Batch of 3 targets.
Target 1
Amino acid sequence: MPFADRPRLDPKAAVGVVFVAALFMSIMDTTIVNVALPSIGRQFHVDPASVGVVNVGYLVTLAVFVPLSGWLGDRYGTRRVFLGALALFTVASLLCGSADSLGQLTAYRILQGAAGGLLTPVGMTMLFRAFPQEERMRATRVLMLPTAVAPAAGPVLGGWLVDSWSWHWVFIVNVPIGVLALVFGLAHLPDYRSLPDNRTERVGRFDAAGFLLSAAGFGLTMYALAEGAGQGWGSTRILASGGAGLAALVALVLVELRRPEPMLDLRLFRDRIFRTANLLSLFSGAAFLGMLYLFPLLMQDGLGMDALHSGLMVFPEAVGVMIASQVAGRLYPRFGPRRLLATGAVVVASCLALMATIGPGSNLWAVRGLLFVTGFAMAHVFMPSQTAAFAGVSQRSTGAASTLYNAQRQLGSALGVAVLGTVLATVGTVTSTAGGTPTANLAAYRAAFLVAAALALVAAVTALFVRDSDAAATMRRAAAAAPGTESEAAATP
């Protein structure tokens, strides 16, 4: 076995370190760039509506490559695919930072999206193959750091980099993280290509029809969701892309269910807890990530706060998630996922409804406390849902299940932003006083927060259909697990 393929650390630690670094970069990249868009537009002499293509290109490509991740990881090995995607993401970040035109920047962001679409699903596959069922909550805790901190840190770090340096640094900041993670991964990261009985995993033929339909379906749908609120849902471009995307997704379902070795194994949704947890994650993610999109807009456009301080206002949410990740992990084996999920989603819905009361006279410390509670409660939704979702998934199907779970998460985040953005556009964020002076219309933000609360309530209702018995394998305490339940040894190609 080549030296580079021999893990020198515990595989769990190696996978955790590399995946956290890569996931942090990937998630933060979706929020840090938003702060830099005005500066990018000014440098390239592009209006705010046109510069949005920088983000749209990234999101669409991300959605296109997520479905491909499971097959690539199984075919070429999770280690090889993950490190290749990490290297591409790092190089693309450097290219973005050196772009001297909007066209170049958009092309490099597309490369970033392709790499990001592979990083998360393949990394999650490695993580869940490294940790046996009774330790899955520990694995989920690993994901909480980047999931919680990165979206909140993005606006803060982005605002400081743009103000102190230039917009180029919001991309270049990824490079040292990516290089260190890549070097560490080359030295320590294992490869999971065997089943528990040490048989080599057989990989099916490439499903070209499934890939083309999923690429068209997810890509066009993501484009419509990302641009619908801005361009108008009645515009020809949005109607055409959205309609074509939905038609491709319907065709995808019909084709994949008939194939013995599909690109997307939709038969996994026959597993009741996997199906329910994905549906719950879709609505809770839409509510939470929609809030992370909406809150800075309220602070900046509605209440006149600058970007840096607006970002700092959001950060207590990340602190709440990090603290709760330690609490939820201990409560999960005792109470099971159902009660944690339902309670957490109800608290999140209540907090989002209270955010509808924020105005010029609001106590900012009370608002920060509200965000802290939101993050604390959301951790009790994210962690149990992700752990329980994979309770009935075999080692062999982990890659396919991870692909479906991450495709759903991408659509959920886009759905939340699209729905809340549509509410803002419909109500109108600007109104005029009697003298004709434009002023912020806080009613639009209130309506959007109430809609976000409704999405969280849908997640709470969905949680009532979760059965703890279906997740029993993940509720055993690791200390009490029988010998031999550790994950299979890493095997190299």
Target 2
Amino acid sequence: MTWAIEEKDYSQRRACQLVGLAPKTFRYVSRRADDGEVRVRLRALANERRRFGYRRLHILLAREGHRLNHKKLFRL
């Protein structure tokens, strides 16, 4: 996509049309906060306590001060 815009000098609208992508989708920038720290800690706890499920890991993370929604934790 960016190749067509930069190298071929196509407009963004034209390049999106060629690929079959909506221009709004191409311009989208996520505003979601970075979950890298929580993800690393969750992985460490899961390796340490292999038999624990996400519900028990949620309790351990809450004790450490990481407040997460249970649905978000399940996605991570």
Target 3
Amino acid sequence: MLGGLISIVFYDVITLYFQIDNEDDLRKRGFSKEGKHQNPQIVLGLLVSIDGYPLAFDIFEGNKFEGHTMLPVIDSFKRKYDLANLIIIVDS
């Protein structure tokens, strides 16, 4: 579908917190860059093109370590579009 036009992608992780007290199966307390450790949150892994267009995403439990989110998103994207090689740029 993408015709091999995608070779460089950017990956980032965002946490989104909720103004509630109760956790559920997805909304969990975890590390928050914004200091909202007391709030349940979700973790969003986002893959974008070199032009900034969103290509893929996945939502993870709020207590999931960011470092464990990239490979599932990348692997799923590569399988879906039959891509062998990608250059992936991430921040620390």
